[in-house]
Queue: 4 jobs
Job 1
Amino acid sequence: MVVESNPDVISAFQQNKYYRFINGNATLDEVLIEAGIQSASTVITALKEDSDNVFITLTARELNPNINIIAKILKNLAKITKLLQKLQNPS
């Protein structure tokens, strides 16, 4: 499942049995739920803004505690890594 906010990108790809597109904003819980995040084995987030990728990471973990997460981070990698580690192990 691919969540894409640009309808032109979606129309440029032919849908097939291996993937589907949802037109929407992946930072919204309801869009991720529509995309099947609660039963997904993995989520890959590669938006332009690190903050959006972190937000999707946190939301994905909340909606599906067992999901594997791959997230693109361009800036402040050390700070974001520390934040995510703290959230996983709050003690």
Job 2
Amino acid sequence: MVKVLTLSSKVFPEGLISETLRTLALLLPTHDSATRKWFLPHLTKFRLDPAALTCGQLKLEDRQIDHFKFWHDRLVVLKSISTIRSRGRSSNGGLMTESVCNGSGWL
């Protein structure tokens, strides 16, 4: 996991590692059971790091899009997709239930 790297690295731009961990906390909040339920089946299939679920949970003020420099554009796209999907309907008329942010209330 990225946490083993020092937060001040000469390999990565200053702030990238810290922001990446905050982004993981945003997308995979530690205490959200729906996120865990979605994430765990994908661990082996996509060779994901289980430690990604241990990055914590952001406070409301830390979720503001302006606080993300490196991942800003990608988060905006994810938020847009999530909003569209949450308003969309499946072909059988039922609401689409899976969203990118899994109900974490971000951005």
Job 3
Amino acid sequence: MRPPEHTPPPTEPPRWLWQRARQVVVAVIGLTVLAVGLALLVLPGPGILIIVAGLSILAIEYAWARNLLKKARARVATLTRRREPR
């Protein structure tokens, strides 16, 4: 009679693997939305809004996208600010 085989308990993947997977998913979704927004600049559709959405998604994980989004928001704020009448 053989003793029962010991199977080790299932282990969770390491934390770095989850973080890397999240980065990849955010990058793929963000770049896809950004590419659609760029295409909509020449096609009929709300291209600039889609580009902002793509940058917002990318800003979750990437500092360069966060900085670009801040610059874009500041530019929009200066363009939409009301000018005082003379």
Job 4
Amino acid sequence: MTGNPRERSLLERILYTILALALIVLGFFFLAAALVAGGILAAVILIRFWWLQRKLRTAAEEEFVAAEYTVVERESQAGPRLPPDSRESMKPPMDPVRGRASNGVDADERR
């Protein structure tokens, strides 16, 4: 057997042709299987990204409360809001036993 195809016998040429066709068909099936597997993998990855994006969008929408509101403008008041005598009533009451305010500060210290 030499490398020259013309010197090969007819049986040899038929066998090599069948072998070449078998390899081409086998290669075609492997290519088809690889393309199908790649398509399935791409579909799974895209579905996963879509699912994560959907979850993040849902979480972002639930984070804020949407409501309608109306801005009410108040009139400005010229004078003080509390009358002068009400400031005395805001002081803590005196504890009669200890002689100090109920918050622990002596009556002398408050003045």
